[in-house]
Amino acid sequence: MNLKKALTLIGLILVTAAIGFALYMVFFRVPPEELPPEVPPEVPIPAPLPPAVPGVPTVPGPPEEAVLPPTVSAIADGGPTAVTPVTNLPTRGASLSPSGDLNYYNLIDGKFYRINTDGTVTSLSNKVFHNVDNATFDPSGNKAIIEYPDGANILFDFTTNQQVTLPRHWESFDFDPQGQQIAAKSIGLDEENRWMVVSNPDGSAARPIQELGVNADKVTVDWSPNNQILGIAETGDWSGPERREIFFIGQHNENFRSLVVEGLNFESQWSPTGQQLMYSTAASISDYKPSLWIVDAAGDDIGLNRRRLNVDTWSHKCTFADTQTLYCAVPRELPTGAGLQPAVAADIPDDIYKIDMRTGLQTRVAIPEGDHTVDSIMLTPDNSYLFFTDQDDGTLNKIQLK
Fold this sequence. Notes:
Helix content is 6%, strand content 37%. The chain is mainly β and 402 residues long. It has a 5-stranded mixed sheet, with no helix packed on it.
C-alpha cells in the first residue's frame, strides 16, 4: 500500500514538471536573435575599354656611344701627348748646343754622351768620370767643367781628350757666350778672401771681379748673353716684408741700376739676347706659390717694364723659344706656400704651356703621357722638339712639338 502511494506521488511530480516545462517553452522562452542572411560581395563592373586609335611605329634611337679614353697624340696639340724616353738611366748636366746636339752625363756608367740631331747616340769620350756632382758645358758642347763632391774641379776637352785641373776652392762655374772665358766664385777660408773671378777656361789669367765677403751664398754666377753681366746679387735692402733690391755684377765695376722684386726665393733666367730677365718669386699676392715675372735687364733699361705673367711655376722649369715666347712646365695644382717649400710639389705632374710675354696669353701645348714632374726643359733650335729631365728619376725625355 505504501509503495503504491509512493509511485503515485512520483508520477504526479513528473507530470507536474512536464506541464511546467511546456508552459515555459510556450509563454516565457525568448527566441534566439536571427542573423541576417549572408550577402555575396559586390563584384565591380569593369570600365569600358577606350576606343582604338591609329598606332605610331617606334623607331629605336642610335646606341649610346662608349666613353673612350682620350687618344695620345704623337705631336703636341694641347691634349695628351706621347713622351719618348731619350735615356732610361738617370742623367746630369744635360745641355743643348746651338746646333741642336744634346749632351749629358750618365750617372750609372760615369760617361758623357751626345744625342745628335739625327737621333743617334755617341759617347763623347771613353773615359769614365766617377761620381760627378755637376757638369757645365761650354756653348759649343765640346768642353765641360766637371765638379766632384770632394771639391775637385777639372776642365775636360772632349775633342782632344785632355783635362786641366782647376782650383778646388772655385765653384758655381759659367762660360761666357763665346766660350772663351769662365766666371766662378773663389771661396777662401777667410771671408775677406772670397771673390767672383774671371779667367780663361783652363783657369789661367784669373782676375778678381767683385768681393763677396759674407754674401757669397747670396750671389749667383750667371753670364748674360749680351756679355754685360756676370752675376746677380740678392744683397739689397728690404723695403717691406716681401720687397727687396737685386744688384747686377759686371766685369768692369759698372754701376748698373738695381732691380726691385716682390717676393721671396728669387731665381732667374736670361732671355736669348740678354735684354730681359725672367724670374720667379713667391709672395702673398700668389698665395706664396712660385710666380713668373719678366723685366727689362740691360743698361739703363734695367728694372723697366716689369710685369707678372700670371703663371705659377719656377723659373728653372721654363725656357725661351725666342725673345717673346716661353715654354714652361706648369704644375697642375700647387698648394699654398709651395714657392717657399718646393719639395711639396715633387710628385705633382706638370703640363707644358706656351706663354706669349707680350700679351700674357697662355696656351696649353701638351699633357705629357705618364704624368711627369719636370726638372728642366730645353728646346731644339727649330722649336720642333722639347727635351725635359724627369725630377723623379733624372731620365731624359722628349715631346714632338711640330
